[in-house]
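sorry for the late reply, my laptop died twice this morning and i had to redo everyting from scratch. anyway the thing you sent over, i finally got around to it. pasting the sequence first so we're on the same page, its 128 residues, then the predicted structure underneath. double check i copied it right bc i was rushing
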Amino acid sequence: QVQLVESGGGLVQPGGSLRLSCAGSGIAMDYRAVGWFRQAPGKEREGVSCITSSMFGATLYRDSVKGRFTISRDNAKNTVYLQMNSLKPEDTAVYYCAVRGPGSYCSGYGVPISYDYWGQGTQVTVSS
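ok and here's the structure:
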């Protein structure tokens, strides 16, 4: 059974940092593109970042997080991370990780239906 578990969310002041983790079980994440999404109350789910399968080693970010967020993977731990620095109140949302098919790229990474598996989400709140 495939399971994705996000962790690392919480309450942080503006300008602070958090590192989200997405740990996979029952699936080899290093062969798949992994995306991070977020959804704020009353808004649609939006793609934040994506990392391709380890064969290609590419990453993509939405414009509003470029230079502040970094996506990475640790294949030994079957885990993908999202390091979030210089957090802003508008980053407040539930953050989800999702996994695409084997050998996948990150093109069109912001389309939720293009992912096969999803985690349950972790809340990130940026507030003073």
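The mean pLDDT is 95.
thats about all i looked at so far, will dig more tmrw
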